Amino acid sequence: MKFVPYLSFDGNTEEAFAFYGKVLGGQTTALLRFGDTPGCDGMPAADKNKVMHARFEVGDQVLLATDATPDHPYQSNRGMQLTIQVKEPAEAERVFAALAEGAQSVIMPIAETFWSVRFGMLVDRYGTPWMINCEQMPAGAEGC
């Protein structure tokens, strides 16, 4: 069994996945537009180019996503956060800084905490909430 998050974007899934590819080193491996599907004749022309389904892969990790449409309006990705676990503090700082460019909000700047040598939280420019966590614990900390 594997959990695979399915995200919703406000008409910019393709752009978001291209950005995540640059930051995380992955790529979009599938992209289907509403206009490419059967039964889209009555759909407004502006919605036909929106992404119905996309798949983004980094190693064996997968994100799926869709663009919102008028009949399924965008509601930010609430009630969840994507967590990225890295092994080195420098990688945590790099990923956090890249995702923070143009971010909607930085909830917790990347810093040492009592459970990790680097941890930070933000909502990126596309409305996706992220937690970046380095697996190393600070000196003297006991397992959490």
UniProtKB/TrEMBL annotation:
SUPFAM superfamilies: Glyoxalase/Bleomycin resistance protein/Dihydroxybiphenyl dioxygenase. Gene3D superfamilies: 2,3-Dihydroxybiphenyl 1,2-Dioxygenase, domain 1. Residues 2-132 form the PhnB-like domain. This is VOC family protein. The lineage of its organism: Bacteria, Pseudomonadati, Pseudomonadota, Gammaproteobacteria, Lysobacterales.
